[in-house]
Amino acid sequence: MGGSSTYAHPIRRSAAISAAALPRGSWQAVGALAVLCSGVAMASFPRAAVGAEQQEWQALGIAPLAGGAATGARMAASDAVEPIDFVPQRRTPPVIAAAPMPASPPPTPQRIRGRVGEGLYWSLRASGASPDVAARYLAALATATDVGEVSVGDNFDMVLGSHGNVLYAGLERAAGSDLQLVHWSQGGRGRWIDAAAPDQPSLVARGSAWPVAGRITSGFGYRRHPILGYSRLHAGMDFGAGWGTPIVAAADGQVVRAGWAGGYGRQVRIVHGDGLLTSYSHMSSITAEPGTLVRAGQLIGYVGSSGLSTGPHLHYEVRRYGTPVNPLSVRFGSVQMVDNGVGKAVRARLQALLQVGVRRG
Q1: How far apart, in whole angstroms, are the C-alpha atoms of residue 65 and residue 56?
Q2: Which of 157, 165, 217, 230 is most buried, with most CB under 10 Å away?
Q3: Whole-structure pTM over 0.70, yes or no?
Q4: Exposed, middle or buried: residue 307 (CB in 10 Å: 0-12, 13-18, 19+)?
């Protein structure tokens, strides 16, 4: 045969002719159609079965469940597995009834003594008294004296019960009469009785108190305000005390305010009889609740510097029918008389409490 000829598959040739006949802009559509057709063809092919070994490898892999993960599948036994004829059972140890723990002896009373330094509260803390115990001691002391009158060099003494409650609160003064306060319960009500004068047939317990253990830094009257810069009536007294020093109610009454009061900062107000009201300002925190009844010496908050204040202190006011009066001119306490029978019992208990912490030998 003369000449050479090239054989072309009719389908490929027609496809080539058709492709050549298409305009240049239609190539993108042809490509998309080819990819779609190949995907359909691949999906129609039968899939190879997955063997047991491959399934085990899939179980060891990390993959989402949607991707065919088989995590947690049971593994097939390999040649390393050796069958055994007998499996021993684990023996359960016998239950032994626990012997009851011996009852711990009740805690013995504790005694804390020390000398007053720059401040009574911090002297108590330095001697080992917790903040709660120190506040309870101050509350007891406040029923018989003005806490602000405690001087540097005085000696304090207290006996604590099993739950940290103060059973005895004593104070030896360098100038003035000593105090020996015994907590006495009668008729379901507790009170503090001063047993410092055993020769007297009657014992007394007063109810007035300074609201904080600290010295007076500013008295009642007109003065130049340290922040505002002009003279005006200082309607109360300022007590210098460290941040967090306990503040107690000066007398029995009802709390009518406990919250923020503008320039006074955090403030508590208590109403008493005869039109008297006391207020306690610039607190760091408040423990009293509005509407509650409080006793003289009861904790109502802590010293701070909130509101218009240049440093931690307590601003204490007394008002009679709304008019500020000098707190030094007001006495809230009432005198309670104790009969001779109770007096003897109180003195006997005092002698027992004073033996706590005394070495014998």
Answers
A1: 15
A2: 157
A3: no
A4: middle
